[in-house]
Design a protein that fits this description.
There is one protein chain. By secondary structure, this protein is mostly helical. It has twelve helices and no strands. The longest helix is centred in the middle third of the chain and has 19 residues, at about 115-135.
């Protein structure tokens, strides 16, 4: 099984180094796109394990986001120019990661199509969300839910559903159970996609 996993990673990584030709509409051609989350996680586990360890992030969360964002296809580019396994936008998440790491500019499209670099940058961004924007959330399950929503729609949009004052928003979140927080997102988040994204990533997380 280990050999099969490694072979799958090498084959997919090789595809990522070729000239980018695929679009979102071609995503169905990639075998892993419709694979169960655990199969996607297995295919990229060598890379997600390393990144999760380096940044102190739950590996299953990284795997679940990859499953939902790209279905394990490292060459996918969205209409909004989100690239690769973790669907990273160079000008937002990519630039923020570079800033925190003391680097100038933002990652190139070529870098984001590289599975190792894409996973590293995506996981680094999760770390930034948890250590900065969402810092102070005490319950680990609530933190996971908040991280998922913030990864897709930004931490600011989430916190403003509670209060425009960040500290008050965090305090209100801490007064809730994880189930109450989850329902709050379903009911109150202004982005229509946020509740579904939270459900999809949480469902993938639970099956890995």
């Amino acid at each position: 099984m280990k050999t099969v996993s490694i072979l799958g990673v090498l084959l997919l990584a090789g595809c990522a180094s070729e000239p980018h030709k695929q679009t979102v509409t071609q995503q169905q051609q990639t075998p892993l796109t419709k694979a169960p989350p655990e199969k996607v996680a297995q295919a990229w586990s060598l890379f997600t394990e390393n990144a999760a360890h380096n940044y102190g992030i739950d590996q299953k969360l990284v795997d679940a986001i990859i499953s939902v964002e790209s279905g394990g296809n490292p060459t996918v580019v969205s209409k909004s120019n989100a690239i690769g396994l973790m669907q990273i936008k160079a000008s937002t998440a990519g630039r923020e990661v570079y800033r925190v790491q003391g680097r100038r500019g933002q990652p190139t499209s070529s870098e984001l199509r590289d599975p190792v670099k894409n996973i590293d940058i995506g996981t680094a961004y999760l770390k930034i969300l948890q250590d900065q924007s969402l810092s102070g959330i005490r319950n680990p399950e609530t933190m996971r839910y908040a991280t998922i929503v913030s990864y897709a729609n930004g931490a600011g949009a989430l916190l403003r559903t509670f209060s425009r004052d960040r500290d008050r928003a965090i305090a209100m979140i801490n007064s809730m159970t994880p189930e109450e927080f989850y329902q709050h997102v379903q009911d109150k988040h202004p982005a229509a996609q946020a509740p579904r994204y939270l459900w999809k990533v949480t469902t993938a997380y639970r099956t890995i």
